[in-house]
């Protein structure tokens, strides 16, 4: 069976207009051309689509069923035309992005704002995860962009670029017992609650990576982690962008650990294929300040 879009349009026009003459006018075709298209449609389907017994030609029950499928074909054609128009404009229909929770959210929101301001047809879909979960989600969602703090090797179809470094500090609330110490050892840390997002990864080489603490609490994101630290529950690493505000600086105190209080992350952006305008705008935001 090979039903054409012309046949589908003809049946749709007849159903909408009610007569062959008006359908021909809607389609800007001659009456014979309309009749021929409908006859061919009946031959293709092997069904009596039209009831010609009355004054007006009407659709049979089988014709009504075929009409629904013809309209689905026409909807698909319109969707394809719209997608082609989007691609020709340079904007991608969908931009899927996965990024690590430790990365600032601002660049991603800026791109959403740019897409909105340009009245672009791109749908931006952001997903957040942590550590190895970022790469897993990147593959599962077949996203175009990934920002990860773990090493990621280039592969066919993927481009990997370094991003500006991201610093984090080991902190506790100012009233926490650890904050009272001039110098903190790993033995001191082991007596208290370590707060993490998902956990750690040896590739990060955190000073607390293999720390055997009294208790470890895994939290869903860094805002929750910050709230738990401010509440005095425990200690943990927080990115500078979360502790730069005046309130956080009053509440939080960096711990003077022998192995180092500051840890430098090296984020990478992984790009799948060729980016459209929205993806390129995001890449510009992410690499701002990169030397």
Task: Report on the architecture of this protein.
This protein is an alpha/beta fold. It folds into three domains: 5-89, Arc Repressor Mutant, subunit A (Orthogonal Bundle); 94-164 and 266-287, Periplasmic binding protein-like II (D-Maltodextrin-Binding Protein, domain 2, 3-Layer(aba) Sandwich); 166-265, D-Maltodextrin-Binding Protein, domain 2. Helix content is 41%, strand content 21%. The chain has helices at 5-17, 20-27, 31-45, 61-89, 106-117, 132-140, 186-189, 222-230, 240-243, 246-251, 277-287; strands at 50-51, 58-59, 94-100, 123-129, 145-148, 158-162, 166-173, 193-197, 215-219, 236-239, 252-254, 262-265, 268-272. The strands form four sheets. The protein has a five-stranded mixed β-sheet with strand order 4-3-5-13-6. Helix 5 (106-117) links the parallel strand 3 and strand 4 (123-129). Helix 1 crosses helix 3 and helix 5 runs antiparallel to helix 11. The two termini are 60 Å apart.
């Amino acid at each position: 069976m090979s039903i054409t879009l012309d046949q589908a349009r003809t049946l749709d026009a007849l159903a909408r207009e009610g007569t062959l003459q008006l359908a021909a006018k809607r389609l800007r075709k001659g009456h014979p051309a309309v009749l021929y298209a409908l006859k061919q449609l009946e031959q293709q389907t092997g069904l009596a689509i039209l009831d010609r017994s009355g004054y007006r030609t009407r659709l049979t029950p089988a014709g009504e069923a075929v009409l629904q499928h013809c309209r689905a074909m026409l909807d698909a054609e319109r969707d394809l035309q719209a997608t082609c128009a989007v691609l020709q404009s340079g904007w991608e229909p969908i931009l899927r992005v996965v990024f690590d929770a430790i990365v600032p959210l601002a660049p991603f929101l800026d791109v959403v704002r740019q897409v909105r301001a340009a009245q672009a047809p791109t749908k931006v879909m952001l997903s957040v995860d942590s550590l190895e979960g970022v790469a897993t989600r990147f593959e599962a969602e077949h996203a175009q962009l990934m920002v990860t703090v773990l090493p990621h090797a280039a592969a066919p179809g993927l481009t990997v670029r370094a991003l500006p470094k991201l610093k984090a500090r080991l902190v506790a609330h100012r009233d926490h017992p650890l904050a009272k110490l001039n110098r903190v050892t790993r033995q001191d840390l082991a007596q208290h609650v370590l707060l993490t997002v998902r956990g750690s990864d040896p590739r990060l080489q955190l000073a607390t990576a293999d720390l055997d603490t009294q208790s470890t609490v895994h939290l869903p994101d860094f805002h929750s982690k910050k709230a738990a630290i401010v509440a005095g529950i425990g200690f943990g690493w927080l990115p500078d962008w979360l502790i730069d505000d005046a309130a956080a600086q009053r509440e939080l105190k960096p711990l003077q650990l022998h192995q180092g209080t500051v840890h430098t992350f090296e984020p990478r952006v992984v790009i799948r294929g060729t980016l459209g305008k929205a993806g390129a705008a995001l890449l510009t935001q992410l690499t701002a300040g990169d030397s």
